[in-house]
Design goal:
This protein is of the alpha+beta class. It has four domains: 158 residues, Schlafen, AAA domain (Methyltransferase, Cobalt-precorrin-4 Transmethylase, Domain 2, 2-Layer Sandwich), CATH 3.30.950.30; 70 residues, no CATH class; 177 residues, Heat Shock Protein 90; 76 residues, Arc Repressor Mutant, subunit A, CATH 1.10.10.10. Helix content is 34%, strand content 18%. The protein contains 17 helices and 21 strands. The strands form seven sheets. The protein has a six-stranded mixed β-sheet, with helices on one face. It has a four-stranded mixed β-sheet with strand order 1-2-6-5. Helix 9 runs antiparallel to helix 10. It is elongated and about 90 Å long. The termini are far apart. It comes from Fodinibius salsisoli. This is DNA binding domain-containing protein. Pfam families: Fic-like_C (PF21247), HATPase_c_4 (PF13749), SLFN_AlbA_2 (PF04326).
């Protein structure tokens, strides 16, 4: 049974955190059943974990190439796993896949967090020792739960994370095969090659995006959020709104709303910000041949902040994610605030260690797409990229009731005065006497950058391309539009985009 993850990337630790992977050089049934039970209990709501058999480790890191297993061991392990699964109370089955890595056979077990925790496993498989115990993961180790941790497991029993709950308002038909296959292909999962050879139901089961009995199989919320074209029909707040302000008081602005699968919302919103907001500045230094280059906002910081909002927000609420691009800063607002014990005081630290996660499954999918960092590494990355760009420090805040989470990225200091001056000039922006065609071009580009041929085709005037060439040239000279690659007019992906002055002509 193929797993919905690239196994080589998994082993190297680029897909999930190392504490969610346990490497075992050889087959040890007792150690395996204890770790299966620990991942099933998922005491930190991280989404369970993986057991990789046939790979040795040193200080938590895999030793490659793998030690490997004998081919004739694979079937024996499969059969023994059925026996082990029935020894766990309540019964728990992991998803398994024997495969080859660097020419050696390895056996991978995916153990998602279970719905029926707490789970117990035998203390020993020896007939001389009896009794069961709760097993948990403590950092990178599998250990017996103490009394306090056992109590915590019981408290968690009724708390299945929202993204992993069954959605009784939806049906299997609401999951789209095309979106699932696109995702599997993008992460280079071996399950992509099998997607056409197994039933859609089995594919969804292996993806862990459906639950329930065969006669009443239902999608879980994470499946609908990623693999439905309109998740906002189930979760009205599942949108990203980007508002770009042209003045300090907020009277003049442009707004764009991104809908669709949440990972696609994220990538499209980032592309929009990269095209319409981020710009590189070159400042020559007297006496030096090499100029200083910096950005008004580093892309990596925006990417991490927005991905963090998609990952950690609540999809039970109707509030959307708001991205407000102001003259001197970008604000990303999401609801609600972080889960306790993280509070406003904690948010002032560069590194935050959180033990509770609102959307463990969403996080896994975003990490596989490399759209977010591993646990506890996002904040340091934001601070680091802002510092390397020469930007002021980012700011993170919530209120006393943790109703909201606000991340603020200040504009580069050297551009702050320039932005404010531009706003004052914009208040008295020149109005151009435009003809019908010029207005139509600006209105079309206001929806997003486009090539010259796309503009001509949209306006239905392909036979007058010479006229359009002169029209575009005039709009460029008046700085109503600009090239997306201004330093390379012959760039193969060259497009036109509307400028702030251009926007003022159509508002």
């Amino acid at each position: 049974m193929a797993l919905p993850v690239n196994i080589e990337k998994l082993i190297k630790g680029t897909v999930v955190e190392t504490e969610r992977i346990e490497f075992k050089k050889g087959w040890n049934p007792e150690a395996v059943i204890h770790t299966m039970c620990a991942f099933a209990n998922d005491i930190n709501n991280l989404g369970g974990g993986y057991i990789v058999i046939g790979v040795d480790e040193e200080d938590g890191s895999p030793i490659l190439p793998p030690a490997g297993l004998q081919k004739n061991q694979l079937d024996a392990i499969q059969k023994k796993l059925v026996e082990l699964s029935n020894k766990i109370q309540p019964t728990y089955f992991a998803v398994s896949e024997p495969t080859k890595v660097q020419g050696q056979y390895v056996f991978v077990l995916y153990c998602p967090g279970g719905d029926n925790r707490p789970y117990k496993a035998p203390v020993s498989l020896s007939v001389k020792m009896r009794g069961h115990a709760n097993w948990i993961r403590r950092y990178n180790s599998t250990v017996r739960a103490d009394d306090q941790e056992t109590q915590q497991l019981h408290e968690l029993a009724a708390k299945i994370p929202f993204d992993d709950r069954i959605n009784h308002q939806a049906s299997l038909n609401d999951l789209k095969l095309s979106l699932i296959k696109e995702f599997l292909q993008e992460i280079d999962s071996p399950l992509f090659e099998q997607a056409d050879d197994i039933s859609f139901t089995e594919l969804c089961r292996q993806m862990q995006i459906v639950k329930g009995p065969v006669e009443n199989l239902k999608p879980v919320n994470v499946g609908l959020l990623l693999f439905n074209d309109e998740p906002d029909q189930f979760f009205p707040g599942a949108k990203i709104e980007v508002i770009i302000y042209q003045d300090e008081v907020g009277d003049r602005f442009s707004e764009k709303v991104f809908t669709g699968p949440i990972h696609k919302q994220l990538t499209r919103a980032l592309e929009y910000l990269e095209t319409n907001v981020i710009r590189e500045e070159v400042m020559k230094v007297e006496g030096k041949a090499q100029a200083n280059r910096f950005y008004n906002y580093p892309y990596a910081a925006i990417e991490e902040v927005l991905a963090n909002a998609v990952y950690h927000r609540s999809y039970e609420l109707r509030n959307t994610i708001e991205v407000n691009v102001r003259l001197d800063q970008i604000e990303v607002l999401s609801f609600p605030g972080p889960l306790p014990p993280v509070d406003n005081k904690t948010l002032q630290k560069e590194r935050i260690v959180a033990r509770n996660y609102r959307n463990r499954r969403i996080g896994d999918f975003l990490k596989e797409l490399q759209l977010t960092e591993g646990r506890s590494t996002g904040f340091p990355k934001i601070y680091d990229t802002m510092e390397k760009n020469g930007s002021p420090e980012p700011k993170f805040e919530t209120d006393d009731d943790q109703y909201y989470f606000l991340a603020t990225l200040p504009v580069h200091d050297r551009l702050k005065e320039q932005a404010q001056a531009g706003a004052q000039a914009g208040a008295q922006v020149q109005k151009y006497d435009l003809n019908k065609t010029e207005k139509a071009i600006l209105a079309y580009l206001d929806k997003g950058p486009s090539s010259r041929s796309d503009i001509i085709n949209h306006l239905g005037s392909g036979s007058r391309s010479g006229y359009f060439k002169e029209t575009l040239k005039g709009l460029l000279e008046d700085e109503l539009i600009a090239y997306t690659h201004p330093d390379s007019p012959t760039h193969p992906d060259q497009k036109y985009k509307i400028t702030d002055v251009g926007k003022q002509q159509i508002t």
